Amino acid sequence: MRRLPGRWPAARLLMAAWLTLMLAACGDSDEPEVPASAEPPAVEVAGPATAVIQQDDAYYDELRARWFALEHAERSAAASPGSHNADPEQAPLSAEPEPVSELPVAVLEPESTPAIGIIIDDLGHSLSRGRRIIALPAPVALAILPHTQAAQLLASEAAVAGKTVILHQPMENGAALAIGPGGLYADMDRAKLEQTLQANLNNFVPIQGVNNHMGSRLTSDRQAMDWVMQVLAARGLFFIDSRTSAATQAAFAAEAAGVRHLSRDVFLDNERTFEAIDAAFQHALTLARKQGSALIIGHPYPQTLEYLEQRLPELQREEGVKVVSLEALLARKYRN
């Protein structure tokens, strides 16, 4: 059939329209805010004997920063201007209960060297970042979110490398932000809360302990924390309180249930600059020298990983402070 001059077939018209829309989108200089419910881009990453869907790292970095800014906004504004990293949780909590002496603990020789423990939270989405943590020349613990694509593979590789693996349990926050699958909420009844927690604990292995992801609301609820600790006690797991709320009841509930526990001293990367991360790390070293030990929590930001990769190899020689496992910190606390 003869084609009339100046007229395109339908397919070409559709293609032209599509190209026009794409060019218009590319020319838009205003980048919209990523909503918490948006699906992040994903790529397939080959791993040993399996393939893992690795979500876009930048997406989770921005959500994590958004959560901290929103959940801590009110308390950060009230923090004193000179407070470290404007972290309102650095101030001591109301008296934390003394550890019970009858808990079974590992027996260690007397230890005089100041020590720090390090946990990296929010793992399970990125296989490459998780593997960088496993490769660190120190017993840095991996806190892995349940029902994430790389959870089991990272847990298995960490165990082979002798690294501690804990469940990073999503808990309801005070800013009404989404916390992801497997979350525990204050309006759950006991059966639902325990069922959800048990499913998360069964999601990957091995797991030596648990710490909270967000959780400013739930950790302030004594009844809910009692239910959590009773599950952990039955499984012989320890608990690490991330201290996202100054009103946390986690330590009291853990003590009542006979669960060994620690509380976070320093957030490493509230600000993602080398200077801020270094200041937080130095603060942790100062605490360790003063009180014998300190517990740091960081996140898998590129800046954090680069800092730890540079800092940890010569830490004990340069600073006289060593990185120890969470189990070693617990043994120090509960040593008779």
TrEMBL record:
SUPFAM superfamilies to which the protein is assigned, alphabetical: Glycoside hydrolase/deacetylase (SSF88713)
Signal peptide (from-to): 1-24
InterPro entries for this protein: Divergent_DAC, Glyco_hydro/deAcase_b/a-brl
GO biological process: carbohydrate metabolic process
Region (Disordered): 78-99
Keywords: Signal
Pfam families in UniProt: Polysacc_deac_2
PROSITE patterns, per database record: PROKAR_LIPOPROTEIN
Identification of the protein by name: Uncharacterized conserved protein YibQ, putative polysaccharide deacetylase 2 family
